[in-house]
């Protein structure tokens, strides 16, 4: 909390205002949830959910007097549909979507919009760790590279049959942070090639 307060104070000192906050930090644990240690469980909740709460709380305090602001939370399609082997990550992202809705209702009277972007399948270090776990635990995947495991998963569940890119996500974030999105709030919008249609 002290780090976030310092960050917010520095932003205000340097720029005089906060217009946009994008909560984009994320981490996850891999494996069966019954095998998770307390640390495996706590870390995604601390980074993904508590971090979003702390940053949103401080940024909103700076935005409210000006009656203006955009908060965009990076959630996940795993926050809409529980997935095996990334249980704590899913729970944290479900929480981010719930927090998004609460903040949208509470901050709407101050003309601050709060939305979530839900990426689908992007090749990241977290996905590489998950692919390695799949290789170790499923003999049918043992001969594949981590990237091949990832590509096979994407093609199996994504109608557009391609992974998402950082640019795919950034385009929606930029739109939600713009004036054109001034009447959109409380939404959790998928960018996932059709993998989750809700």
Question: What is the average per-residue confidence, as pLDDT, rounded to a whole number?
Answer: 96
Intertermini distance = 33 Å
Shape: globular
Following the backbone from N to C, one meets helices and strands in this order, namely HEHEHEHHHE
* Main sheet summary: 4 strands, parallel
Summarize the structure.
The chain has 198 residues and is α/β, with parallel strands linked by helices. The chain is built from six helices and four strands.
Topology summary:
Blueprint lengths: L1 H14 L4 E4 L14 H26 L5 E6 L12 H21 L4 E8 L5 H13 L8 H12 L8 H11 L11 E4 L7
Parallel strand pairs: 1-2, 2-3, 3-4
Write out key terms for the chains shown.
198 residues, alpha/beta, 6 helices, 4 strands, 11% strand
Question: Can you put this structure into words, describing what you see?
Answer:
49% of the residues lie in helices and 11% in strands. Helix 1 (2-15) packs parallel to helix 2 (38-63) and helix 2 runs parallel beside helix 3 (87-107). The chain has six helices and four strands; from the N terminus they run αβαβαβαααβ. The longest helix is centred in the N-terminal third of the chain and has 26 residues, at 38-63. The protein starts with a helix and ends in a 7-residue tail after the last strand. A four-stranded parallel sheet has the order 1-2-3-4, with helices on both faces. By secondary structure, it is of the alpha/beta class.
């Amino acid at each position: 909390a002290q780090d976030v307060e310092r960050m917010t104070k520095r932003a205000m000192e340097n720029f005089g205002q906060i217009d946009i906050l994008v909560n984009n930090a994320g981490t996850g644990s891999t494996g069966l949830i019954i095998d998770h240690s307390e640390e495996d469980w706590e870390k995604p909740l601390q980074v993904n959910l508590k971090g979003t709460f702390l940053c949103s709380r401080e940024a909103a305090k700076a935005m409210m007097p000006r009656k203006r602001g955009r908060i965009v939370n990076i959630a996940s399609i795993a926050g809409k549909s529980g997935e095996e082997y990334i249980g704590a990550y899913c729970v944290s992202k479900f929480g981010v979507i719930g927090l998004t809705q609460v903040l949208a209702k509470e901050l709407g009277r101050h003309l601050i919009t709060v939305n979530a972007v839900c990426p689908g399948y992007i090749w990241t270090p977290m996905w590489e760790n998950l692919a390695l776990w799949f290789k170790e635990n499923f003999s049918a995947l043992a001969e594949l590279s981590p990237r091949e495991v990832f590509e096979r998963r994407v093609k199996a569940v994504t109608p557009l049959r391609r992974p998402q890119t950082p640019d795919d996500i950034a385009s929606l974030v930029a739109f939600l942070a713009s004036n054109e999105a001034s009447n959109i709030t409380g939404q959790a919008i998928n960018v996932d090639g059709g993998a989750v249609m809700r």
